[in-house]
Amino acid sequence: MSDIQASKQTLLDRRYLRMARIWAENSYCQRRQVGALVVKNKMIISDGYNGTPSGFENVCEDADGITYPYVLHAEANAITKLARSGNNSDGSTLYVTAAPCIECSKLIIQSGIKRVVYAEQYRLTDGTDLLEKAGVKVEYLNLENNESKEK
Ligand SMILES: [Zn+2]
């Protein structure tokens, strides 16, 4: 990739990641709002935010503020939405506002997503470690400044 191509890619990455952040505003979860977009050939083929499964009340936390175990993460929602669509995630890029957990990382690997760009580090790195082990390109982009670096 030339420098010009690389900087164009970074610009696009930042835009998609900002869109994922805006998409996260759809989440009705109180503790944390996460958004995800799946992009293939410059088309957004799926989207997701963390929330309860279809048909469940739009409440993510119990009275003590503990997240219900049946809440789906943004990545899982985006990937399962693809399963019901005519789109194919093979070779796509996932933009997600927070580093994927290990459960979502398994889904990411199996869905053929080849690249993950995320905005917020997570205290655990087992998810991103697993992705890298499976050959998925993982990139951290800090939206608060203009620097970007490989994870
Ligand atoms: Zn997850």
TrEMBL record:
Catalytic site positions: E75 (proton donor)
Domain CMP/dCMP-type deaminase: 11-131
Sequence positions that bind Zn(2+): H73, C101, C104
Organism superkingdom: Bacteria
SUPFAM superfamilies: Cytidine deaminase-like (SSF53927)
Listed PROSITE patterns: CYT_DCMP_DEAMINASES_1, CYT_DCMP_DEAMINASES_2
Keyword terms: Hydrolase, Metal-binding, Zinc
Cofactor(s) the protein needs: Zn(2+)
One GO BP: pyrimidine nucleotide metabolic process
MF-aspect GO terms: dCMP deaminase activity; zinc ion binding
InterPro entries: APOBEC/CMP_deaminase_Zn-bd, CMP_dCMP_dom, Cytidine_deaminase-like, dCMP_deaminase, dCMP_deaminase-rel, Deoxycytidylate_deaminase_dom
Xref: Gene3D superfamilies: Cytidine Deaminase, domain 2 (3.40.140.10)
GO cellular component terms attached to this protein's record: cytoplasm
PANTHER family per the UniProt record, alphabetical: DEOXYCYTIDYLATE DEAMINASE, DEOXYCYTIDYLATE DEAMINASE-RELATED
Family statement: Belongs to the cytidine and deoxycytidylate deaminase family.
Protein name: CMP/dCMP-type deaminase domain-containing protein
Organism: Prevotella micans F0438
Organism ancestry: Bacteria, Pseudomonadati, Bacteroidota, Bacteroidia, Bacteroidales
